[in-house]
Amino acid sequence: MTREATTRDATGDTATGSAPAGAAPADSAGTGSAQAERNGLAAPPPEAAVELELAGVSKVYQTRRGVVEALKDVDLSIQRGEFISLVGRSGCGKTTLLRILSGLLPPSSGSVLAGGQSIWRGANRDDEALKRFGLVFQEANLFPWFTVAENIALPLKLRGVGKAARRARAAELCQQVGLQGFEGAYPRELSGGMRQRAAIARALSYNPSILLMDEPFGALDALTRDKMNLELQSIHAAAGATVVFVTHSITEAVFLADRVVLLTPRPGRIRSVTPVPLPRPRSLQAQSSAQFQAIVRDLRIQLDEES
Ligand SMILES: Nc1ncnc2c1ncn2[C@@H]1O[C@H](COP(=O)(O)OP(=O)(O)O)[C@@H](O)[C@H]1O
Ligand SMILES: [Mg+2]
């Protein structure tokens, strides 16, 4: 899961060297510990690198037509800074899993840990833990009566950040997601891709360490989607955030991920976890490499076996 030391900033420039400021080590399982030892520091315990953990998670929905076993015995450990793509057929429990990870939905059984802490204390959610999460859904869900900058800075307003600081942060984020010049525009004046950029900027506004995204580019045309994938890759590298990204598209999943988690339906379980050891940053051309295509093919075969 070692990410390359080469990172791209949001402007697309390539920078080689140490991880950007604020980035969490993505390699603490390996070179991070070695480095700490060289510096005379005690090596961090391996579990320190785990950002999110699901253990024995099951989810049962009670409906009028009976019981739906949406997830069963899901175990998943996600490293800090890792990019996880979650794929599977419609109805296999991807959204349920993401909502459980984010604390929006309690599991029926099992535990959900963020930074080693349970996000539930009995039936009560730990709201401190939730501050680490940024969420992006398929619909941008911007407020139509707020400008782009106001929408992006809304989470900061809710956290009591002052007006000048909010404006500065919104401008910075607009720059980062390619919306510079649109700070004062209203959502209706934006394309679908631009609205999703604004939703991503809003989710990044308070520097979440974990970004959870549920088919954020599902409604976009193929070319815009390619562009958004490249930008998300840059944002991930620059922010150092841990990302869990749900998608229907196997190509998109492989392009973005360090590991692809494939869910299988009824009940939703993890069928496989596939590492994607391709170097970063990845260009769109990387998709035509033999290694990329072999991974995509393998995942497609697994999905076909389900039907
Ligand atoms: N609120 C709910 N109440 C009852 N059943 C639900 C609810 N949400 C999802 N389900 C069911 O749980 C299963 C998984 O759904 P979901 O997590 O939305 O899957 P996906 O995102 O992979 O399409 C489906 O069978 C769906 O019908
Ligand atoms: Mg879904």
Provide an overview of this structure:
This protein has 307 residues and is α/β, with parallel strands linked by helices. The chain folds into 2 domains: 47-132 and 210-217 and 226-307, P-loop containing nucleotide triphosphate hydrolases (Rossmann fold, 3-Layer(aba) Sandwich); 135-207, no CATH class. 34% of the residues lie in helices and 25% in strands. The chain has helices at 28-38, 94-102, 127-130, 148-158, 163-176, 192-204, 222-239, 250-256, 290-306; strands at 6-8, 14-16, 50-63, 66-79, 83-87, 109-114, 117-118, 120-121, 124-125, 133-136, 210-214, 242-246, 259-264, 269-275. The strands form 4 sheets. A 6-stranded mixed β-sheet has the order 10-11-12-5-13-14, sandwiched between helices. Strands 4-3-6-7 form a 4-stranded antiparallel β-sheet, with helices on one face. Strands 1-2 form a two-stranded antiparallel sheet. A hairpin with a 4-residue loop joins strand 13 and strand 14. Helix 4 (148-158) crosses helix 5 (163-176), helix 5 (163-176) crosses helix 6 (192-204) and helix 8 (250-256) crosses helix 9. It is globular, with a radius of gyration of 19 Å. The model is unreliable at 1-40 (pLDDT under 50). The protein binds adenosine-5'-diphosphate and magnesium ion (MG).
